Each structure stands twice: as structure tokens, then as C-alpha cells.
Backbone:
């Protein structure tokens, strides 16, 4: 390793999980949906990102994951400005460092629970390397035990309840301990008792994996459970989105 690359690696190690500066994004030119001057999420936090429907929450998560490309500004994830990467490099960076729980879970219906959890390490060698030589199947099964779905490892995901599917999606996001875990309103289908229990499981799993959690919801009752809250309408001053919280 050269001195310069050693310095870059050590600054990446101490960089915040997420750091946005002067970010603008529009689906249609001239109508910004995201306009954020500054947003910093330190490592190890559990962050509750809230705002009404249409305030740009999912769009912001797309920018953090590098699925969407900012029109300008810097999106630094773990010290890497992903706006400077090629689209192939962004895909590789996401696969290696991020876990993502989608609103609709996006599980693969014809695969078993175990194979769904294994997908990130099956698809990406760098993610698999994060297991440090541990057996992928054992890692998947351990996560399933933590999330109380180990009885269903051989089942098809379509045979599970919504609550169980959600926990499969979380296990898949957490396999091989990505540094950042992003969740887009994954609790909207649950009643309030199950919501709280699910969040406790999610926090426990993220803490065990040392992950920073960015959790999006419009349900303000969840806020006290998190270490930090960010109101999107407060940090996002884009003209095209609602400025009032409901
Ligand atoms: P939230 O997740 O907070 O409900 P979104 O990020 O989904 O908000 O949407 C923010 C704004 O961007 C809304 O006005 C929405 O209509 C618009 N939008 C979202 N996705 C697209 C898209 N693929 N193409 C065009 N406009 C979009
Ligand atoms: Mg959304």
C-alpha cells in the first residue's frame, strides 16, 4: 500500500457513514426533488428519517444507495464520494457496503428463505469476502435464528406471513455485516405491537453487525426508539416537495 492510499484508507475508516454536501436531484430538469446543502450521519447511529409522503424520502435513499445519480454535489458513503464512481463501480460499492430493505421487501419468490438471505453473498465476491472465511450458509442460518425465522429456512418466501417476509428482507440486508443498512418504510404493513418488536430486533441485529441504520418512515410514533431523528422537510429545501409535515 502506498502512503497516499494508506492515508485514504484511514480517512475512510474515520469518515461518517453518510455525508451529503450541496446535493441536487431532479427527475425532470428544473424541478428539484432533493436539494440538501448538508447532511451528516455519524457511524453507529440509528437514524429515523421522516417526512410526509412525497417529501423525497425514497429518492434520497436512492441517492445514498447510488441507484440514482445526483445532478450535482457530493454523496459520500463511508468517505467515498459515490457520485464520482462509474455506474458499475457504484453497483459494486453498494453490493459490498450496503444492506437495503425495500418497502415491498423485493424477495425472490421462487427461492427459499435461506437462498433469499444468501443472495448478496452469492452475487458479490467482495460482500462474500466480508464473511472472513465463515461459511455463508452458517452465517445465513445464524441471522435467521436471531430474527426468529430459522424454522422457515427451507420454505418458499411466498409461504410466509408479511412479518416473516420482512424479517427475511432484514436478514438479507444484514448478511456479511455491511457498514450501512437502509430501510424504506418496512413497518407500514405491521400493527404497532409487531412494529416495536421488529424494530428492537432490527436494532439488535445492526448493533451486533456494527452497522449504521438509516430508517425511513412517515410514522412519527417510532421516532423515540432511534438515537437520532432527521426531518426531511427541514433539511430538504427542494421546490417540488411538500414543506409541511403531517
Ligand atoms: P417519499 O418516499 O417521501 O414518499 P419520493 O421520493 O417517492 O417521496 O417522491 C418525491 C417526489 O418525487 C414526488 O413528487 C414524486 O412524485 C416524485 N417521484 C418519485 N419517483 C419518481 C420517478 N421515478 N419519476 C418522476 N418523479 C418521481
Ligand atoms: Mg417512499
Residues:
Amino acid at each position: 500500500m502506498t502512503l497516499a492510499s494508506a492515508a485514504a484508507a484511514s480517512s475512510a475508516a474515520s469518515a461518517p457513514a453518510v455525508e451529503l454536501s450541496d446535493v441536487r436531484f431532479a427527475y425532470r430538469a428544473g424541478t428539484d426533488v432533493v436539494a440538501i446543502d448538508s447532511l451528516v450521519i455519524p457511524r453507529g447511529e440509528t437514524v429515523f428519517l421522516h417526512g410526509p409522503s412525497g417529501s423525497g424520502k425514497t429518492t434520497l435513499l436512492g441517492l445514498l444507495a447510488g441507484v440514482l445519480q445526483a445532478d450535482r454535489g457530493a454523496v459520500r458513503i463511508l468517505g467515498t464520494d459515490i457520485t464520482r464512481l462509474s455506474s458499475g463501480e457504484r453497483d459494486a460499492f453498494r453490493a459490498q457496503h450496503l444492506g437495503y430493505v425495500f418497502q415491498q421487501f423485493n424477495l425472490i419468490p421462487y427461492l427459499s428463505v435461506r437462498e433469499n438471505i444468501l443472495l448478496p453473498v452469492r452475487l458479490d465476491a467482495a460482500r462474500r469476502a466480508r464473511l472472513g472465511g465463515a461459511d455463508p450458509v452458517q452465517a445465513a442460518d445464524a441471522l435467521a435464528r436471531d430474527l426468529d425465522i430459522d424454522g422457515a429456512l427451507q420454505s418458499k418466501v411466498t409461504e410466509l406471513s408479511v412479518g416473516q417476509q420482512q424479517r427475511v428482507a432484514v436478514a438479507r440486508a444484514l448478511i456479511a455485516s455491511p457498514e450501512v443498512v437502509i430501510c424504506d418504510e418496512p413497518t407500514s404493513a405491521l400493527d404497532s405491537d409487531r412494529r416495536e418488536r421488529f424494530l428492537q430486533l432490527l436494532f439488535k441485529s445492526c448493533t451486533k453487525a456494527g452497522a449504521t441504520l438509516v430508517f425511513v418512515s412517515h410514522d412519527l410514533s417510532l421516532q423515540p426508539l432511534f438515537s437520532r431523528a432527521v426531518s426531511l422537510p427541514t433539511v430538504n429545501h427542494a421546490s417540488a416537495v411538500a414543506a409541511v409535515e403531517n
Notes: Residues 57-58, 184 surround magnesium ion (ligand 2) (CB under 6 Å). The beta strands are 18-28, 31-41, 46-50, 72-77, 80-81, 98-101, 180-184, 212-217, 228-231.
